[in-house]
């Protein structure tokens, strides 16, 4: 009876799995701080997509680790950049898998910041052209959705305008609208090789103490043409997920980030928690708070656990 009257259900179609593509061949390298998550060369990425597809996961979020970095982040928008190649590789294996691409400059420049840096400062307006070019190159490669994560002001409008001018008006924008300057990102920066070489990202990511600012950021992005909104991180910001869900009638995405994942993995490895129970409860909490989609590194395990539950 409890299952029959349950108000919130977690489904495999709610899940989006992040994947990290790298140059090379035969590379399947586990990220030390993120057990079970890997750097994947394109051949290994194809194998991973086969597994993901068989599990019934419908969407992936692609990140790229370039072989070369420069001050203008040129590999971010190169036609043969690692993400662009990864998009094509995924679509070769499963054309129906929804491919979302992270749009940012931080992995592609040696300073590790999300915009162009001049004289020790991140230059917002001049960064917009490169961010929009990156989104366009992803769409041209076959991405279904582009997801700007840089937090530069005005980037959604710049992306939407450039996509529309190039006949990609049907490619939606999933905006990292509410992205806090969080300590939960540590393991990801190891995974993406994107730690800032100086300072931090608090000048363009949000203060964890602010709620009204989150509402303004979301409203601004929707006005600029965003089709979906994201809250990142998810676990410490479930009140923000609920506030956005109550206010805006658009798809809402919660990013269960690397630090949240790694804490669960570390505690489970020590036998301190029941990993399956904790993860399912946590993701159900995100859905209950109002998220329509959950980006999570636990996605493959969750898909298996849901299958097992349905077999009972």
Task: Write structural notes for this entry.
The protein has a single domain (12-311), classed as TIM Barrel. The two termini are 15 Å apart. The chain contains ten helices and twelve strands. It is α/β, with parallel strands linked by helices.
Write the layout of secondary structure elements.
Layout: E1 15-22, E2 28-30, E3 38-40, H1 42-55, E4 59-65, H2 82-93, E5 98-103, E6 116-118, E7 121-123, H3 124-141, E8 145-148, H4 155-165, E9 174-179, H5 186-192, H6 212-224, E10 228-232, H7 238-247, E11 252-256, H8 258-269, H9 275-289, E12 293-296, H10 299-311
Parallel strand pairs: 1-3, 1-4, 1-12, 4-5, 5-8, 9-10, 10-11, 11-12
Antiparallel strand pairs: 2-3, 6-7
Helix pairs in contact: 1-2, 2-3, 3-4, 7-9
Question: What keyword list fits this structure?
Answer:
globular, 312 residues, 10-stranded mixed beta sheet, TIM Barrel, two-stranded antiparallel sheet, alpha/beta
